[in-house]
Amino acid sequence: MAQSGLARSERINGWLFVMPALVLLGLFMIYPIVWSLWMSFQVGKGMNLSFGGFANIQRLTKDPVFIRALINTFTFFIVQVPIMITLALLFAVALNDSTLRFRGLFRTAIFLPCVTSLIAYSTIFKSMFAVDGIINQTLMALHLIASPISWLGDPFWAKVTIIIAITWRWTGYNMIFYLAALQNIDRSIYEAARIDGVPAWARFRYLTIPMLKPVILFTTVVSTIGTLQLFDEVFNLTGGTGGPSDSTVTLSLYIYNLTFKFMPSFGYSATVSWVIVLVVAILSFLQFLVARDRKVKSS
Amino acid sequence: MNPALLRRGLVYALLSLAAFISVFPFYWMIIGATNASADIIRGKTTPGGALFANAATFFATVDAPRIFMNSAIIAVVGTALTLVVSSLAGYGFEMFRSRIREKLFALLLLLLSIPFAAMMVPLFVMFSQAKLVNTFVAAILPTVASIFIIFYFRQATKAFPSELRDAAKIDGLNEWQIFLYVYMPVMRSTYAAATIIVFMANWNNYLWPLIVLQTADNKTITLILSALTSAYTPDYGMLLFGTVLATLPTLVIFFLLQRRFVEGMLGAVK
């Protein structure tokens, strides 16, 4: 009798502890997601919506701004994520060496960009990348460029500036995950490899990378989601336009414009947002596949 | 030259360059706050005499006490609620196992990959139907239950010694007292790390407040700075002065909790 009372209180407590979070997530996450899936099949302006079947999906294929936004988002993702992950790994491995001096100082310095708000660093970067600004002056003084680059005025360089800005902001953040994981690796494995005469790059390739694989996968997936949702930086560096001439417009920025700037078309913007969901799902799945594939090959 | 020494030198050079690039924009921001806008755009890297002029322009343009109070209320209330709700859930999922809850937890992890853009439109419609647009409630509520922080607390709870819970039960504490008097004090590093992550996210949050806070007197400092930046000819001296003020709270929290932050991160990844 007492036993069943105890089991019941366990059961009730188990639900009570998770209930506030579940209620909030249900209301402010699951319900809106399901609703937006429903909305994506509706057409009309404002709240006057009617069922439109696949009309929104047809509109997607003929919408030049959507296609631009899709290409831009992919460009940011394909170029930026590998650069950032490589740099973060490199710094983490370098900082994991316990004989290195000033480790704490280097670690704090490289992590520091994460404390700035996306808006703060957009402002800082915008002023540094001005046409007569410090970046152009430095590059010209070093004779790397002959004339100033119009960083935010040129379609190509605007993309480069955004990629530089995101990499500056997020490399240290990813580095901390790798550092934490590296410190859990048993040092004696490295000692054994060194004694056996395995060179440094091979230790990195065949010991460090495989052991960090779960963390690398985790950070890659998180960064993928982050890049596909890119909004704040682009919005602020380009003054809310995604310009020049849509060269930096991203999917999230386009959804925002569709919903809150142009004549609100909730149904169509919901369709665009589900494109992001699908792309994230496909990419995460592929990343898991790639990670599993490597494991099979190496064993 | 000795190859080991050469490699060592390369490592130091690489790390110094990375540290320089990471820290320079902070230097730039502080120096910029003391210079006139024209000098900033021309790339002046030495302190100037325009600090008080920039401060005066900033305080004349922005209702600073009110705006910073808005940011502080949203960030502090939001962080406190997130920590309570998410740590309760992380503890609950880990300590009380049931098949249904394991399935629910797996579902939550799947939801983690759904971008905010996919919820933004219905969320806005929900809050406008509830007549809560332009309130702090609307700005805070959707951020309170964070799947990432629930996951983080569950991972960290795996390291919480279950003997402590058993001993507390024998002493006659109920589950809620155990959580309050045993779990929370023991897990303070985890709470510290979560505080840094959540406070920064709330203080710096942009897209949702941009949508839901509509009148100037309700906006956060992040929104105000953004609006000033997108002016046709932004006054960078005043802006960078504002940016210094807006970055200070997160910097202070970071440096106060930094040691615990690293400990907390290590605990979660283990």
TrEMBL record, chain B:
Superkingdom, taxonomy of origin: Bacteria
GO cellular component: plasma membrane
Keyword vocabulary terms for this entry: Cell membrane, Membrane, Transmembrane, Transmembrane helix, Transport
Protein name according to UniProt: Lactose ABC transporter permease
InterPro entries: MetI-like, MetI-like_sf
Pfam family, one: BPD_transp_1
BP-aspect Gene Ontology terms: transmembrane transport
Annotated ranges, domain ABC transmembrane type-1: 68-257
Keyword Transmembrane: yes
Membrane-spanning residues: 12-30, 67-93, 105-127, 133-153, 178-201, 236-257
Membrane topology: Multi-pass membrane protein
Taxonomic classification: Bacteria, Pseudomonadati, Pseudomonadota, Alphaproteobacteria, Hyphomicrobiales
Family: Belongs to the binding-protein-dependent transport system permease family.
Cellular compartments annotated: Cell membrane
